[in-house]
Amino acid sequence: MLDMVIMMGLQGSGKSTFCATHYPDYTRINLDTLRTRKKEHDALWQALNQKENIIIDNTNPTKADRNKYIQAGREQKYKIIGCFMQSRLQDCRERNNARTGKEKIPEIAISCTANKLELPYYDEGFDELYYVKITDAGFTATLCRETGIVEE
C-alpha cells in the first residue's frame, strides 16, 4: 500500500526538515514551492495517478484543510499518515527569525495559523497519527492511539 503523509503544524515547527530527513524519497507537495492551489492540485493528482508515495508539506491547521488530501488519498487507496509537529509558538517564531530571504515569513502569519490550529484526530480518516517533537537528539515521533491519547 502506498503512503500519503500529511504534515501539520505552525510555520517554523520543523515540517520541511522532518520531511527531508524522514521521507526523502517521497514526492513532496508544498504550496509555498508550487505557488498556486491549481499547481498544487495538479501535482497532487499527478503523483496519485503515478502511484507515488506522497508527503503533503503544508501547515494544514484545520480539519477542513486536511480533509481534501485525506479524501483524495482514500479515493486512490493510500494509507493516510498524519504527522503533527508539536512546537511552542515562541520556538516557531525564533526559528522563523533565523531564516533569511523568502523563507522568512511575516510573524502575523504564524500567529494567524496558531489561532486556527485544530489538533488532529483519527476520526478525520488517518490510518496512523504521530505527534512529533524537536529534541536535542533530533525528532521524536510518538504514535497516537485512536482515542487521541499519545503513547509515551
Automatic annotation (TrEMBL):
SUPFAM superfamilies: P-loop containing nucleoside triphosphate hydrolases. It holds the Pfam family AAA_33. Keywords: Kinase, Transferase. One of its GO terms (biological process) is DNA repair. The keyword Kinase applies. The keyword Repressor does not apply. GO terms for molecular function: ATP-dependent polydeoxyribonucleotide 5'-hydroxyl-kinase activity; double-stranded DNA binding; polynucleotide 3'-phosphatase activity. This is Predicted kinase.
